[in-house]
Write a structure and sequence with these properties.
Elements (H helix, E strand, L loop, with lengths): L6 H7 L2 H11 L28 E4 L1 H6 L17 E4 L7 E4 L2 E2 L3 E5 L2 E2 L22 E6 L13 E6 L13 E11 L4 E11 L3 E12 L15 E14 L2 E15 L7 E18 L2 E17 L2 H4 L14 E17 L4 E18 L13 E21 L4 E15 L11 H11 L4 E14 L5 E12 L3 H4 L6 H5 L9 E3 L7 E13 L6 E20 L12 E25 L3 E16 L12 E10 L2 E10 L17 E12 L2 E8 L40 E9 L1
Parallel strand pairs: 5-8, 22-25
Antiparallel strand pairs: 1-7, 2-3, 3-4, 5-6, 7-8, 9-10, 9-31, 10-11, 11-12, 12-13, 13-14, 14-15, 15-16, 16-17, 17-18, 18-19, 19-20, 20-21, 21-23, 23-24, 24-25, 25-26, 26-27, 27-28, 28-29, 29-30, 30-31
The chain binds copper (II) ion.
The site of copper (II) ion has 7 residues, from strand 15.
Length: 728
């Protein structure tokens, strides 16, 4: 069976047989016999094995080494070719794979599907796990096995906490844990985390907790970027039981974000509380492996206009008021999967999953406001989105040179929402609410996914992978149901970070993507001294959910617009390239090497015009040095000017730039220290997917008299970071 050779990963965590089942479950991921793939971008210095060519796995050590530098879990993915990020708050960036953004990417956090409980996607799934609580992150680009797909078209990001570690047979009690802290000069950002674990051979109890906070950061000119501060606290517990070939794990946690500013949104997060619980079982039987999960997550989310946007010192605004918005979200679901080895070369995987998302969103009446009383405005009233999916997948080794995977999947998605209400008792918004309430809001969507993947390894030096995936995503609640076409209401809706206002569309159809990709990988098979990989890809998306200008709205004249979600066919294509090479090795001076990655993507609507937020040509080149406990890197980042912009959203162009970052780290027994300098040259830059900067704009109107859409979000100026981790 495949699992035998995959022992490498779990052998560290779990003894013998359990390790096998742990790994077979990891064989969810289409990976090769050589073991766990570590892509070139992992800055751990480990050399990648071949295989699973569109998959990248970040391991705990690589993630830990970035803890001082990076706060946002999503930012850990920034170096993966083909992955880019849309800026949000300090810990809420949205990942994009091959130009397909946000909810088009399936994100699984310890087996849980979490949907942002916010019209502006301030609390996306990756914001719910602190980077200090992560064991591995697996990223699959474009062609995703159906067992890891469903309701997504761009790919899958799977974040897993570390596998529980039990005491070795014959030993009594295993105590382990870690303490870490960091400081970053720009924004005066600091925090720490703690992990504790106690285990015998059969039971493990663990805790991780973290706190971090940051003030507003400054750009390279020293100008403060308003509404960019945040504070976040995470607590997570786990209790695991292991008997023979069975593992049962309970996870629970709580997150509290008292504040997170959003420089590209009209609103700021003023509170976010989430609790979750999760049961996971995996076991090995004579007939194969079984894996099941059950989870529940609850979010209480509050938004308002914070002081950076409030203009309390502006006489024009002195009398304006705040505008609280409340969202309650719940995610609930299960996933069960059986893995059935037919013989040594064939494996079948079947599974079933259910995900239910429920959202309530209301905007409390504001006393003394003409426009925002006497009712609470109701945006979503008990809105639900329930999805049930089933799949079957077949992996086959035809010969040592040829492998294939074929999968089919069916998802049924049902959505609905109750009646809504305007703030006022009479007027156009009341009429709009009544019109919406007269409609039938229930929708259902049936979608079929297919994934076919072929791997060919003609010799030890080269490997090829060709894949096709038909993938679907049904519209989200926030695309279907926001109902008010009044200006102020629409400005509160929109996750694009473009400052525009959005109106939902009850007639949206699911997106159907046809993804094609080819990967060619070459390596030095004798000394593993170099490696090179290129993946050109193409995607045709039927009914891509984009936006049109709202026809029933009075459009402002300052560059912002009112838009409505709408289906349009689209195509995207691009290429990811990555490589690494050893440069020089010396007993005294250490080992010098280099790794690089380059990505390009282009997206167009078939009826003309560009898609929004396509990352221009960009490349990273890193010079790496390793000497015993020392690991250092000097990194250059090249980003081309963004000129292919979307006119409908009035997406702003950004100039090209080069950034230089430097870092070094030293590991001495159980203590590791990381120090670095980001943006060494203090270059003023605007990340192409940063979005429109409105961190100091008056929030409640995008009317013609207000400041216009003419500023990109500035990137962070020079920043020193230092971090320390003590593990025991
Ligand atoms: Cu929000």
């Amino acid at each position: 069976m495949k699992s035998k050779s995959k022992l490498t990963m779990a052998a560290i965590a779990l003894p013998s047989l359990m390790a096998q089942s742990a790994i077979t479950l990891a064989a969810d991921k289409y990976e090769q016999d050589e073991g766990v793939l570590l892509d070139t971008i992992v800055i751990t210095g480990k050399k990648p094995a071949q295989g699973g060519l569109n998959k990248t796995e970040l391991n705990a050590e690589g993630i830990r080494r970035q803890q001082a530098q990076v706060q946002d879990t999503a930012k850990l993915l920034e170096d993966i070719p083909g992955v880019s990020l849309q800026a949000g708050g300090g810990i809420s960036s949205l990942p994009i794979i091959h130009g397909l953004n946000d909810e088009r990417v399936k994100i699984d956090v310890n087996g849980m599907n979490i949907v942002a409980a916010c019209a502006n996607h301030m609390n996306p799934p990756l914001s719910y796990i602190d980077r200090s609580n992560i064991g591995t992150i697996t990223v699959l680009r474009g062609i995703t096995p159906v067992s890891m797909g469903g309701d997504s078209i761009g790919g899958t990001i799977s974040v897993q906490s570390a596998e529980p570690v039990f005491a070795q047979p014959g030993k009594d009690i295993l105590l382990n844990g870690s303490l870490s802290g960091f400081y970053r000069s720009n924004g005066d950002s600091f925090g720490g985390s703690m992990a504790l674990g106690i285990a015998n051979q059969h039971v493990k109890l663990g805790y991780t907790g973290s706190h971090s906070q940051s003030g507003n950061y400054s750009d390279a000119r020293g100008v403060i970027v308003k509404s960019s501060a945040y504070e976040s606290q995470n607590h997570a517990f786990n209790l695991a039981f292991k008997f023979d070939q069975h593992l049962l794990e309970f996870k629970g946690g709580q997150q509290h974000i008292p504040f997170q500013g959003f420089p590209t949104q009209r609103m700021d997060m003023t509170n976010n509380d989430s609790i979750f619980g999760n049961v996971h079982y995996k076991g090995m039987f004579d007939w194969g492996n079984l894996d099941g999960r059950l989870y529940l997550e609850n979010t209480s989310h509050t938004m308002d206009i914070e002081d950076d946007k409030f203009y309390t010192n502006d006489p024009k605004r002195a009398l304006t008021m705040k505008m609280p918005m409340e969202v309650r979200g719940r995610n609930f679901g299960y996933k069960i999967q059986a893995e059935l080895p037919i013989n040594d070369d064939h494996l079948v995987r079947i599974g079933n999953e259910f995900h239910s998302n429920r959202l309530n969103e209301w905007w409390p009446a504001v006393k003394g406001s003409m426009g925002m009383s006497p009712n609470d405005f109701v945006n979503l009233n008990g809105a639900t989105r329930d999805r049930v999916g089933s799949y079957a997948e077949w992996e086959a080794n035809w010969s040592p040179q040829l492998k294939s995977m074929l999968g089919v999947r069916y998802d049924h998605t049902m959505t609905d929402t109750g009646n809504v209400k305007a703030y006022q008792l009479t007027g156009a918004t009341v009429t709009a609410a009544n019109n919406f309430n007269r409609l039938n809001h229930g929708r259902s969507f049936d979608t079929f996914d297919v994934t076919a993947l072929l791997q060919f390894k003609p010799n030890t030096m080269s490997q090829f992978e060709f894949g096709y995936a038909r993938k679907n995503r049904a519209p989200s609640l926030y695309e279907l149901y926001p109902w008010s076409n009044a200006g102020m209401m629409m400005t509160m809706i929109g996750s694009a970070g473009d400052g525009n206002g959005y109106l939902g569309n009850l007639n949206l159809k699911p997106e159907i993507a046809h993804n094609l990709s080819l990967t060619a990988a070459f390596r030095d098979s004798s000394n593993n001294a170099w490696e090179f990989k290129a993946t050109p890809y193409f995607s045709y998306v039927e009914n891509f959910i984009d936006a049109d200008r709202c026809t029933s709205c009075t459009q402002p004249t300052n560059g912002f617009y009112y838009l409505q979600y709408a289906n349009h066919n689209a195509r995207l294509w691009g290429i990811d390239v990555s490589g690494r090479a050893d440069i020089y090795q010396h007993a005294t001076f250490g080992q010098f090497s280099t790794h690089t990655s380059m990505s390009y993507v282009r997206g167009q609507r078939m009826d003309g015009g560009n898609l929004y937020h396509m990352m221009p040509l960009n490349a990273k080149l890193s010079l790496d040095h390793k000497l015993q406990g020392w690991k250092s890197a000097l990194e250059m980042q090249f980003v081309d000017a963004k000129s292919d912009v979307q006119a409908i959203r009035n997406e702003l162009r950004t100039p090209g730039y080069i950034l230089l970052n430097a870092k070094t780290g030293y590991q001495w027994k159980n203590l590791s220290v990381d120090v670095g300098l980001d943006n060494v040259l203090n270059k003023q830059y605007y990340h192409p997917l940063g979005g429109a900067y409105m961190g100091d704009y008056y929030a409640m109107s995008i009317g013609s008299g207000e400041k216009g859409n003419n500023r990109n979000l500035p990137g962070m100026g020079r920043s020193v970071f230092v971090g320390m981790t003590l593990s025991y």
